[in-house]
Amino acid sequence: MKKILYIIVIPVFLLMNCTPKEEVKTVKIGMCSDVHLPTMHDSEKRITRFIDSMKIARPDFIIELGDFGIPKKEYEPYFAIWNSFPGKKYHVIGNHEMDGGTSLEKAIDYRGMESPYYSFSGNGFKFIVLNGNDKKEAGLKGYQSYIGKKQIEWLRNELEKSQEPIVIFSHQGIGTDPDIPGERYSIENSKEVRKIFEEHNKTKKKYRVICCFNGHTHHDYAEEINNIWYITINSMSYKWLGEEYEYIRYSDEVDKNFKWIKYTAPYKDPLFTLVEISTAGYIKMTGKKSEYVGPSPWGLGYPDYLKKYVKPQITERLMRFSMQ
């Protein structure tokens, strides 16, 4: 009797009682913040340097984290430089986007945005852009730093339906980045927002919130809170000091035409970074160092406790996180 030999091929991963290893997803982002086009006399040079660098680096997209400029004819060439980047590009609405009597509606329309908060996906990640300029109560005047009820509900929904790990962008910070006491810098209800992220991560580990990027304080800062990174991207241009630290750093003509510079500590070179985020569990940031034009903040008596955060640089960082 003839015997027949049957060969059964079983995938190795079944023999090992495990599933195939998931594909690692990586995204590269060109990032800058607080360009403040109306404040600096050399804004064209600064934004051009960023865009030229990004054309070489070729990230998956670029984003500016707010306080870029207002929709005014004299700033049109600078917005055109930003728009010359051939890839995807995004804006965050900062508190100074509504300066000079500009409405929020005009600011977002000028940028081609449908809403001051929105989401998009790419490279296996979901990105959520928040608007920290909501009013806590109707009728409030001045700069706001709050995320209102309507936006909170939208955020919860965006998190819930996400099928990808999540990266958050905002202008005002959601972490605990400090500044001058008595002034409103972090989002006022940041604890509430962080709790929403943390509750989401308890049940959606695969589609968790990895990190949050912000600008606003013109600091070089990063902190990890409950396995979520909160990272402040330094201003491209300067650290705001205030009128009590007045010092004329450029020519009399520059001071005459750009009256706010003397209340800042300008950076000689524009600061920006290239960020790489991977589901392998890391966030890598390129570093960039400059120096102050004129005396440092400490030479003018700025509070010493801020030395940890106030510096003319973006620090090169490697930050780890867990997807488990």
Can you offer a commentary on this structure?
The chain has 7 helices and 16 strands. It is of the alpha/beta class. Residues 1-10 and 12-20 have low confidence and may be disordered.
What is the approximate shape? globular
In percent terms, what proportion of residues is strand?
A: 15-25%
CATH topology: Purple Acid Phosphatase, chain A, domain 2
The chain-level structural class is alpha/beta
What is the level-2 CATH architecture name? 4-Layer Sandwich
Q: Into which percent range does the helicity of residues fall?
A: 10-25%
The value of Rg in angstroms is: 23 Å
Number of strands: 16
Q: In which order are the strands of the major sheet placed?
A: 3-2-1-12-13-16
**What number is the mean pLDDT?**
92
Instruction: Assign the CATH superfamily.
Output: Metallo-dependent phosphatases
The arrangement of helices and strands along the chain is HEHEHEHEEHEHEEEEHEEEEEE
CATH class categorisation: Alpha Beta
Ends apart, CA distance between termini: 56 Å
Largest sheet geometry? 6 strands, mixed
| Poorly predicted runs of 5 or more residues | 1-10, 12-20
Q: What's the number of domains? A: 1
Count of helical regions: 7
